[in-house]
Structures are given as C-alpha cells and as structure tokens.
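Quick one: structure for this chain?
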Amino acid sequence: MKMWEGRFKKELASEVNDFNSSLPFDCRMYKDDITGSIAHAGMLAKCGIIGEDDGEKIIQGLKGILDDFESGALSFDSDAEDIHMYVEQILTQRIGDVGKKLHTARSRNDQVALDIRLYLRRSAEEIQILLKELLTVICNKAEENVNTVMPSYTHLQRAQPVTFGHHLMAYGQMFRRDIERLRDAYKRINIMPLGACAVAGTTYPTNRQLVADELGFFSITENSMDSVSDRDFVIELCFALSLIMMHLSRFSEEMIMWCSAEFSFIELDDAYSTGSSIMPQKKNPDIAELTRGKCARVYGDLNTLLVMMKGLPLAYNKDMQEDKEAVFDAIDNTSMCISIFTKMLDTSTVKPAVMHKAAEGGYINATDCADYLAKRGIPFRDAYKITGGLVGYCIENGKTLNSLTLDEYKEFSPVFENDVYTALDLSTCVSDRRSAGGPAPECVKAQIQSLKDFISD
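Got it. Here's what it folds into:
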C-alpha cells in the first residue's frame, strides 16, 4: 500500500509502479534521508508539534533502521516507491502509529531536496580529497623533474624549452581551480530547504534554522517555491565535475602520446596498462583512454540536467526525479577516474634523456636567439627576422642552431659572439626564464610550494 493512496480508488498498475519508482537509484541516499529525518523529528519535538516521547521514539527507531542498513540486516524492497517512503514504512512497522507522525510539517518535495543536498555536500568533500591526492602526486613528480628539459608545444609543434616539472605544474593549476570551484559550489549546496514542504510552507510552528544548525547547513532557503524546485546546485556541481573530467581528458591525451613509441617520454607501469588479444608487443594506455572517453559521459550528464530543467514551471515536477541518476553517474565516474588516474601517474616512469633529445630538435631555442640579439640593441622584429633566416639556413644545411660556427652566425649579424652558445644551451634557455610562473627551476619550485600550501590548507 502506498502512503498517499487515500484519494485513490484503484491500485497502482504494476508497470506504473516500476516506471515511477526511484528506489533503485535513490537508495544510496538512505543515510542522508535518515539523518534529515532524525533532525526533523527532533525539531518537531522541541517545537511542541509532537510529544517529546514520540520524538525520541521516532529518533531511536530511525537510528535502528540506519544501523540495520549499514550492517546489511535490512535490504531494500524492490516494490517500494522511493527511499523516503520506504524508510517511513519500515519505521511505522517497527514503532507503530508514532512513526506516522514523522512526516508532519514536511513533504517529499522538500525532503528530496534536503537529501540530495546532503548527498552532494558529502560528495563534493570526497572529490576534493581525491583531487588533493592527485595534486600531491603531481607535486612529487614535478619536484623530481624540475631540471628535466623537454619541449613545450603550441599547435602540437615544438615551441620552446621547458621542464617536465613545469609542464606538470600547468595541470596542477587546473586541478587547483577545480577544488576551488567545488568549494564555491559547496556554498550553494549547503543551504537547508526542509520546511518548505510541498510548495507553500506550513501552518505548524516549525523552526527551520534549528534543523539547519543540527545538520551543519550555512543557512536556510528563503523562498518555499524555490526551495523545492531549485536544482541549480546539482547542475553547478555537475559542471564542476565536467571541468575536472575535461582536465583529466587533456592530461590523458598527453599521457597517451607520451607513452607512444613516437614520443617515448614516459612508460606506464605494467599494473596500469593492458595488452592486445592478438599483438603480443602491445602495451596499451587503456586507463588514459577510458578517462578520456568517460569525459564525454559526464558531459552528457550535465546536458541531461540542463535540458531536463529548461522548461519546468514552478514548482516541483516529477521530471526532477531524473536529476539523481545523472549527477550520481557524474560523481561516480569522476571519482573513479581521478582515483585510478592518480595511481597511473604515480607509477609511471619518466624518461629525461628522451625528453632532452626531443628538445634538441625543432629549433625550440630560436626565440632565445632572437632575445640574444634584442638584448644587444637590435629591435626585436629585426632580431626575429635574422633568427628566421638562421633557422632556414639550418634546415637547408641539416644543422642546428647550436652546431653553427661563429662565422656562420656572423654572416647573419655581426652582433653574435662566442657567448651565443651558452645563451642557446637548452639548460640556459630554461634557467634564464625566471619571470613569475616560468620554467626556471626556482620558479617551478615556488609553484610546487604554493600548491603544497594550498593542499595543506
């Protein structure tokens, strides 16, 4: 029997029950539902809406249900409509008619809104922890490679010399922003909607702030209609997760390239690679590829939420039940990807010699050559043109800038002297880039320390 069947003369068709049921996916909010109900029952008793003895009996009954769920003694009934009705049903079976008083001065509409906020609040905290673990690995790898010279790329063409540590710190900044976004989203998740009831509040003398304080919310929602129909916070969290996945996907793309024979900058650990069913030599970066693929899935979850909400009139509509599967999927996949990507990166082996060899090609010290001339009084645009001529000459003659003789340099400009070889050495090119945020070792170390301070905050 349904809790709401009083107005109906016919039983719900079985296929409608199956179609309407959300228990298969909202059952994961059992702890949040019970926690919210305990706070609600306590408020009802303190406000004199129900007796103190009844309030205590309800609270103890709810705690017993939670214990049984946690221990596995109580399982979920596939015929139940949702976790909210199921908990109330079990409570009434256990403590009798007193259990029927729990739903006084609330609706499933504000109850659902509370549960999802509690669940997302916890999820946002857990994902921040995972991101901090990833940042710790990034910092450790960067520290090991502050002097590991490699080429940077623009347009996927070799650009200028940097270090692997500097490159890793770029991703460190991305994931730092992701944590900051989660913290910011948390502010809007952590607002307490219970007490808005179905749409128009209640005539009972409730104390919503009491429940908010008990559950650790920053404040209460200020409009009862918005309280039950707002899913901005769900969409905002899913957007933050989409950006995390985008950053993981970009990192994955580079890991995939770096471990290929064409780059061979890194090697993935055997425990975090897979093989081929037909080609014995293969060592495939499946974790990185799946992470890249799952990014699209989380984007889909975000799009589902946006499209679901775009045409809904105020206030609550059953469409909004669809928010949970989308955001739960985004949370699950983002958490899983961060966790396994962290381990894949941590166990990977960097190949400094290969990176340095790659940096020696592609004339990536050409900008430094132009800067060398500009620092000696030649206007930068002229210095740029002279250096372009030098690169063209090197290409035609199969040489590098470092292999040219001083006489060859002087054919393009008399300003060149022996110190050009030091200026164009890759280590010098990197170490001289001391501008804030640059790849010089001391700059990278400062970036690492800043990120470590952020992680420990």
